[in-house]
Design a protein that fits this description.
The chain contains no helices and eight strands. By secondary structure, it is mostly beta strands. It has a single domain (2-99), classed as Sandwich (Immunoglobulin-like). The model has no long low-confidence stretch (mean pLDDT 96).
Length: 104
């Protein structure tokens, strides 16, 4: 089962660090071993949606952070973070991120 997270909007010129909080899905004492974030187009157009994922995901205790940069204005991306744990679980969390126009 995939959990959901609320992600803020960003402009195409910003780099935003998003957080996926896995604490509620982990057993007591369980840790995250690996994390991977995948971007797909939810609505709009972008031929290379994975390009908004900047660098590797960082594991910080029970949270995973990922830098997101670029993107196509008006496009909504679905970001899914999948982790494996030291107890053998594979967990996923998804959120929608919108690229909004820059305010002048």
């Amino acid at each position: 089962m995939t959990s959901n997270v609320v992600l803020p909007a960003k402009t195409a010129g910003e780099t935003l660090r998003v957080t996926f909080p896995f604490l509620s899905q982990l057993h007591s004492g369980e840790g995250i071993l690996t994390a991977d974030v995948v971007a797909e187009v939810y609505s709009g157009e972008d031929l290379t949606p994975q390009a908004i994922v900047s660098g590797p995901a960082d594991i910080l205790g029970t949270n995973v952070t990922q830098d997101i940069s670029g993107g196509e204005e008006g496009t909504v991306y679905s970001l899914t973070c999948t982790v494996t744990t030291d107890e053998g679980q594979t967990l996923a969390m998804s959120g929608l991120l919108t690229i909004v126009p820059a305010v002048i």
